[in-house]
Amino acid sequence: MKRFIAALVISAYPMIASGQTPVDRSILALPPDTVVARVDGDEITLGEIDEFSRVRDPKKVFQLNQQLFELRERALNMMLGERLLAREAADAGITVDELVARLRVDPIDEREVDVMVEDARRRGAPIGSEQLRPMIRDYLRDQKRGAARERRIRQLKEEHAQAGKPIVSHLQPPRVKVPVSAGDPTTGNGPVEILQFSDFECPFCQRAQPAIREVLARYEGQIKMVWKDFPLPIHVHAVAAAAAARCAHEQGKFWQYHDVLFANQQALSAAELRRHAATVGVDLPQFEACVATGKHQEAIRAELEVDDYPIEVTPTLLINGRMVTGAVGVEQLAAIVEQELGR
């Protein structure tokens, strides 16, 4: 919805579409031994530059490699989808457009149109409701057609898997190794290790929890989940909440306390942290003594000062070293877990 409204507002203003220079794509195809500079007959290759960068700024290099992987992965998924549809269309003796036109498309809900019209007007859309409604219907129709197309592609992939011909990607993601300490809260055990960098005051971290819980339940006995505190400086209660959770962890109650904190994200004052501790059944005098020392706050802040890890946002998951950022859905997480189990 927001993308539609933003496009709508932008479309009301003149845009310059000429004078654009095509992007030079050749750098991605250069081999490492390409000579890029000479100094008094001494040559410097592209591979040497990359190695120098990896040593000087490994965090930035990892982030760039991650962006390149995500770009390639999106392109690969699109290409696979196109080829699956093309094969099905060829088998049926029709075009891909004809095949897509036959797919079941969810009907447009006029209540959704009403909400989008009101939202567009509130955001300053430069045209009236009567002009907006047909534009929004067209937008929703395109969205639903795209969703139907994606559903069919998923079905075709499932049919391939059921027929013993699963589609396997050999595109390898970058991986980062982060050590797990004996004090890190963990749950479960298995060949897939997920490090969760999170913040109890972060709304996106809260939003990610249902998907994480479902994946842990779906792959019980196959996943080891490790909690890593990453309280953001913009959240005033985040460090204190993380430290309190570590005090609960000393009594074997971290994950119970973790659930209560996320369920009460707007109630993280010192008194409320104590009340939540009582809720999960910790020994309160011991809990309060632990909090009073400030030891966990100091340890958390010290760990945040270590700049070796390419973590910048919460939530960030490292799934066997593969980085996944944001509150992603169950199926996206499950797909990565499946890939890791198949390695």
Quick synopsis:
With 343 residues, the protein is of the alpha+beta class.
Describe the structure.
This protein has 2 domains: 1-8 and 32-166, no CATH class; 186-341, Glutaredoxin. The chain is globular and about 75 Å long. It is of the alpha+beta class and 343 residues long. Helix 5 (110-122) crosses helix 6 (129-162), helix 8 (238-250) packs across helix 11 and helix 8 crosses helix 12 (295-304). Strands 3-5-4-6-7 form a 5-stranded mixed sheet. It has a two-stranded antiparallel ribbon with strand order 1-2. The protein has helices at 2-10, 46-56, 58-92, 96-101, 110-122, 129-162, 203-218, 238-250, 254-263, 270-280, 284-293, 295-304, 330-341, and strands at 35-39, 42-45, 186-187, 192-198, 223-229, 316-319, 322-325.
Task: Give short descriptive properties of this protein.
single chain, Glutaredoxin, 13 helices, globular, 5-stranded mixed β-sheet, two-stranded antiparallel sheet, 343 residues, alpha+beta
